[in-house]
Amino acid sequence: MTNDAGEELGEYLQGFTKILDEAVTTGRRLTRDELESRRALGLLAAESGQPLRPLLLAHLTAARSVRPGGVDSVLAAVEQAVDAFMYGYERAQRLAVRQEEAARREFIDDLLYGRSDLGRLSQRAVRFGLVLTHAHAVAVTRGPDAYDDTHPVTRQLDGALVARFGERSILLTTKDGLLICIAPGDQQDVLAYFAKQAHAATDGGCTAIGRAHPGPGGVVHSYEEALNALELAERMHLDEPVLHAADLLVYPVLTRDREAMADLVRSTLGPMQQARGGAGPLLDTLGAYFDAGCIAAEAARRLSLSVRALTYRLERIHRLTGHNPADPQHRYTLQTAVIGARLLRWPEQEL
């Protein structure tokens, strides 16, 4: 190391050689005050952004100027001093990491809830690799576990995204136990890859992808769409591994007039409550029948019933409701009512 470099780092070695001289001469260990002074300088060096390697070399170079003594005593003193210096340096790094994590979490909360001034939010976003003046889309995954930023699955997905796409403007995070990926709106391949990797890493978790929206408020808009899509998937018993909010727009439309939809469910499906066991089994039968494309054999397989048993249930539904599931003219009314029942959580909740 050059003399110039040593002089530049001199402030971080203040008193180092004097401490070594006294320790080597007397054969004593470093005092508490001496160790604390090394820790303080290590913390100062880290806070100043000094790289560690030159600092360690500077200490070793300075140790060579210490008056002759036993090798063991010199090494023992150097070891104590450098260890204390490293303790302070690493403590500063840990504090910096915690501060960075806190700042990142605050930014994520503000970004996903839209609570901050949009101009200031855009400025803060640059620090985390996002340019909020562009359009962004958000993918949200729900798995069997609650995930946070330190969860092995989160680290696995982060590594996979970096390995595949490098340092693109991608942000992977977590919120309320969900995995969240934010990407530029014109990079749908990123979200598709995230969804595939998340499905595997979470042992079958479901991912919903919101539409791309421009501007600082675009992220929260897309995030809310993805959350709503996950909720719809649960209500509608959708088992696809990947859901696109754009493909589910019909459901919010159907429930926009909630009272009208509730009236349709009550008038069309309400009579099924007279059946033994209530309306639930017959509603599940209709749902499976429509999901199977009105193919009785496939619907029976999904319900673990015989075709004969399924046919009996469909006939029972016809008698109770006056609507024949096999009749194309009746089918639309029944299917819309079934969708409404799922969305409104009927018959579990009264309408």
- What is the terminal separation in angstroms? 80 Å
| Largest beta sheet: strand ordering | 2-3-1-4-5
Note poorly predicted spans: 1-5
SSE series = HHHHHHEHEEHEHEHHHHHH
- pLDDT averaged over residues: 86
**What count of helical segments does DSSP give?**
15
**Largest β sheet strand count, sense and barrel closure:** 5 strands, mixed
Strand runs, count = 5
Shape: elongated
CATH topology value of the largest domain: Alpha-Beta Plaits
**Hey, roughly how much beta strand do the residues contain?**
5-15%
Q: State the name of the first-level CATH class of the largest domain.
A: Alpha Beta
Q: Can you tell me the number of structural domains? A: 3
Could you tell me the radius of gyration in angstroms?
33 Å
- Class based on secondary structure composition and strand pairing: alpha+beta
Q: Specify the CATH architecture of the largest domain.
A: 2-Layer Sandwich
Helix amount: 55-70%
The gist of it:
By secondary structure, this protein is of the alpha+beta class. The chain has 15 helices and 5 strands.
What does this 3D model show about the protein?
With 351 residues, this protein is α+β, with helices and mostly antiparallel strands. The chain folds into three domains: 3-96; 128-248, Alpha-Beta Plaits, CATH 3.30.70; 252-343, PucR C-terminal helix-turn-helix domain (Arc Repressor Mutant, subunit A). Helices cover 61% and strands 7% of the residues. The protein contains 15 helices and five strands. The chain has a five-stranded mixed sheet with strand order 2-3-1-4-5, with helices on both faces. A hairpin with a 2-residue loop joins strand 2 (171-175) and strand 3. Helix 7 packs antiparallel against helix 8 (188-201) and helix 13 (296-303) crosses helix 14. It starts with a helix and ends in an 8-residue tail after the last helix.
